[in-house]
Amino acid sequence: MPIAPSGSVDVVVVGAGISGLLAAYRAASEGLEVIVLEARDRVGGRCHSMEAGGVHVDLGAAWHWEEHKRVPRILEEFSLERFRQHEPGVAIYEPQRDRPVQKFEWPDVPPPSWRVAGGAQAIANAIAAELPDAVLHLGSRVRSVDREGGEADTGAVVVSGEQEDHSFMVRADICLCAVPPRLVAHTIDFGPDLPVSIRSALRRTPTWMSHSLKAGVVYERPFWREDGLSGRIRSFAGPIGDWHDATPPSSMGDHDGASGAGALFGFGPPGAVSGVDAATVRTAIIEQLTHCFGPDAADPVAVDTHDWTADSFTTPEQGSACQGQHPEPVPELASSYWNGQLHFIAAETAQDHPGFLDGAIEAAERWDRDGGYDAVRFGQAI
Ligand SMILES: Cc1cc2nc3c(=O)[nH]c(=O)nc-3n(C[C@H](O)[C@H](O)[C@H](O)COP(=O)(O)OP(=O)(O)OC[C@H]3O[C@@H](n4cnc5c(N)ncnc54)[C@H](O)[C@@H]3O)c2cc1C
Fold first, then answer.
1. According to the annotation, is 130 in a ligand binding site?
2. Number of domains making up the chain
3. Where is the Amine oxidase domain (predicted)?
4. Is residue 78 marked as binding?
5. What's the first-to-final CA gap in the chain, in angstroms?
């Protein structure tokens, strides 16, 4: 949707992942005028689910664990359901393609995890559906965030960027930047320049799971379960190193799984499929699963992959220096700047469970906890 050239709102949110959407929803619920600017043509960011055969398979975030208390709260708020990750059964070890696979009991660790019915992207879709009309602008890539009047002033924040065939500019009292810190450091300019401490914190904070590749496969039924297999595969032959059962329970009424379809998702080394056409990737994946599970695996309904390292809306080109480390809480990322007018709220800025879905929720709700819009209006920003 085109943005009015002289658009001016209370709050502008950059990024429509879980953190940006939730912050926008909370601000809009307080009666504030909000705009969300999202570079991709979809919501959800790193929550990205493929759909085939009536099931949704997560190619991005999938699980939450018992210690992630915010996720079930949000699922309840937006009337979503969750289910246990399917674990029972025997796992498969594939040391090499030209050797037989081995079966083994997977040890009972880590503790059981939960998945979201309809895939993790359902959280983003559900929040986006509750936003007032004209709040969400897809295909809107932000390039710079400036403060009118510079350092000393309390003028508006001006957010500029590009839509498909034109540039835009939005003026707002407050900017909530819900883009992963490392991507911010490499792709968004700030004027006046940010203090060295926050610039360095943005640059050094790894984006959780950005250095990963995920594959999803859907079958007409979860045939491996009939052989007492859990769907878990540990492979050194590849292309996917770790497979998990991604079948939703068919007992979930009109939710995923009612069709009886079976699904798997797995993690591979980033770059394993880069530059390779989709048909070749599909063949390599089917070959692997047929070697592990037998001929039943030869004819999937759908195969898809997503290499997050090659996705410029998650990983900057220079991003390879931060391979795979999990972010730690960074206090500079949880502070506000420009007298409370600029906040960084992506999952990596959370002080509790940074990088996780739970962290995205914590970070999105931090701004409100710290006084929200009133803290700026009445000059109480911290
Ligand atoms: C493969 C994978 C597996 C994962 N598994 C798990 C898991 O099992 N459990 C878990 O808790 N977490 C997991 N995560 C992490 C989880 O996905 C994130 O914690 C969460 O989705 C972050 O949400 P966010 O809104 O903070 O950021 P993001 O989802 O990254 O959203 C940022 C948004 O900003 C947009 N954007 C970027 N640049 C711009 C710009 N210049 N202008 C406008 N918009 C822009 C992006 O397109 C994106 O929509 C996984 C991540 C990946 C990639």
1. no
2. 2
3. 113-366
4. no
5. 34
